[in-house]
Amino acid sequence: MAKLKVHLTFSGETIKRPLIYEIGQEFKVVTNIRKANVDGKTGWVDLEITGEGEEIDRAVEALKEKGVRVDPIEGDVIEG
Amino acid sequence: MGFVKGLQCKECKRSYAKKPIHVCEFCFGPLEIVYDYEGIKEAISRDSIEAGPKSIWRYRELLPIDGEPTVGKHVGFTPLLRGENLGKVLGLTNLYIKNDSVNHPTLSFKDRVVSVAVTKAKEFGYDTVACASTGNLANSVAAHAAEAGLKSYIFIPSDLESGKVLGTLIYGTTLVGVRGNYDDVNRLCSEIAANYKWAFVNITIRPYYGDGSKTFGYEIAEQLGWRAPDHIIVPVAGSSLITKVWMALKEFEQLGLIDTVKTKIYAAQATGCSPVTTAIKNGAEFIKPVKPHTIAKSIAIGNPADGYYGIKTVVESGGYGEDVSDEEIVEGMKLLARTEGIFTETAGGVTVSVTKKLIEQGRIKRDDLTVISITGNGLKTQEAVENSIGELTVIDPRIGSFQKTFNIEEEK
After folding, report:
1. Which of B93, B300, B337, B341 has the smallest CB count inside 10 Å?
2. Residue B46 confidence (pLDDT)
3. What is the tens place of the pLDDT at every residue in B61-119?
4. Helices B240-254 and B214-223: crossing angle, nearest 10°?
């Protein structure tokens, strides 16, 4: 089993939808929210996703397709 | 013997032992080093520091290593210059330039963080170091790994300009070009760091790596004659440097090495990638990630890891955040070169031009003790200015041709 820690950023319509629930239903992954700040317009969630590597990759792709910005928990790791 | 007590989560304050970890297991907050300041206070003084090596290691008690430094022994203690000529142009009487464009060995401030990180990686017993970088960090990791005799992997986007890979490949590293955009490379590197027993310097051992930046602040205070300036202008990418410069001054204050710190810290960014200065201007606590579009590539981080803490530092110190256009960046580079003889990279153009703006806004006054941070060398990013610095004048090999072209009479 692999684990991936991600920082999700929601804006616009995505803020209203149960997208974390949806990826848990659509893929064999366990989602675990560790920290979040969400209001009516925008929000972010620090999430741990556990599952097989490929399932995690698919879940991440699905989140992106649903309009969520997905970043590593560390932020941008490519430095100048 | 070192003075590191352990690690602590910056958010929930949970404690951890001294290990190669960077994220709190509980709240995912970043970890930071906890030092034994009582012990350090007894161990160091102005005199003992002044008697130390002319490198960052004169502050070794304040760095997160346990043994003696083993890599990068000549890093740091770069010049702090009195910028009289630039000051005249900008209207400042008390201007200094902290010049890391001549940092040893790879000509940027990254040598500070990498020498600490690679020394620590060796202490932890790693045989491989790694990073993801498009420039300065890649050069520095490859160079220090070579010196340390460690294997190194450097990840870059596969479409990076060829000129940028040369300064890294020369050190014999394994350079990996990743197909995909920056976001893809970011996520892959995060996954690799989580799954390989490597010292990924700015991920796996980030708390240790980051503290190397403190030496930039220590040196400013010491070189000013053991005092903190009124203002420091710092280029912001991931926001680590700006938080550590502030931390360095506060540590010196706590240790009684300098008086009460009243320094205002300013974040400087390119307008084409300004998540931190935008948040500061809007009074926001958190940054909104952006897609970078600027010539200042060395500081173009759209989703800065320490952005929240960078904003906090600026607000706490009473400073401000300002950003400048690509044209202003080039003007800043030219101004520094033509007044002080320093060829800085684009990030230096950012700090110079942001300083100009801050003066125009009345935030920095004529006689204030002001320090501009120069963190990299212009020879690495020559393409940024190649079309805006004039052209070569070609003449025939005859004195007449010279005189005709330049209209200069012979000296009698």
Report:
1. B341
2. 98
3. 999 999 999 999 999 999 999 999 999 999 999 999 999 999 999 999 999 999 999 99
4. 50
Chain B residue numbers with beta carbons less than 8 Å from the beta carbon of A7 are 303
| Residue B137 sits in the same domain as residue B269 | no
The string of pLDDT tens digits covering residues B15-74 is 999 999 999 999 999 999 999 999 999 999 999 999 999 999 999 999 999 999 999 999
- Contact with chain B for residue A22, Cβ under 8 A: no
Cβ-Cβ contacts under 8 Å, A44 against chain B: 286
pLDDT at A80: 87
B132 in contact with A, Cβ within 8 Å: yes
Q: Is A13 on the interface with B (CB under 8 A)?
A: no
Q: Do B133 and B202 sit in the same domain of this protein?
A: yes
* Contact assignment for A35 to B134 by CB distance below 8 Å: no
Residues B407 and B212: their CA atoms lie apart, in Å, by 53
Q: Which chain A residues are Cβ-neighbours of B300 within 8 angstroms?
A: 80
Q: Do B113 and B93 contact (CB within 8 A), yes or no?
A: no
pLDDT above 70 coverage of chain B, percent: 100
- What residues of chain B, 167 to 196, have a C-beta less than 8 Å from chain A? 182-183, 185-187, 189-191, 193-195
Looking at the 3D structure of chain B, how many domains does it have?
3
pTM over 0.80: yes
Classified as helix, coil or strand, B66 is coil
**Peptide bond before B105: cis, by omega within 30 degrees of 0?**
yes
Reported as a single tens digit per residue, the pLDDT across B341-389 is 999 999 999 999 999 999 999 999 999 999 999 999 999 989 999 999 9
**pLDDT at residue number B160:** 77
* Structural domain ending residue among the three candidates B143, B177, B209: B209
User: Is the domain of B226 the same as that of B371?
Assistant: yes
Spatial CA neighbour of B173 closest among B132, B150, B142: B142
Residues 47-66 of A with CB under 8 A from B: 48, 60
Q: How many helices and strands, by DSSP H and E, does chain B display?
A: 15, 13
pLDDT at B187 over 90: no
B8 with B41, same domain: the answer is: yes
Residue B330 lies inside a defined structural domain of this protein: yes
Tens of pLDDT, residues B291-300: 999 999 999 9
Asked if the C-beta of B7 comes within 8 angstroms of chain A's C-beta atoms, the answer is no
The verdict on B356 and B310 lying in the same domain is yes
Interface check for B292 against chain A (CB to CB < 8 A): the answer is: no
Strands (E), B259-339: 264-270, 321-324
Look at residue B111 in the predicted model and tell me its pLDDT: 98
- Give the dihedral of Cα atoms B223, B270, A72, B116; nearest 10 deg: -20
User: Domain range spanning residue B45?
Assistant: 4-62
Instruction: Give the pair of three-digit tokens for residue B326.
Output: 């690509």
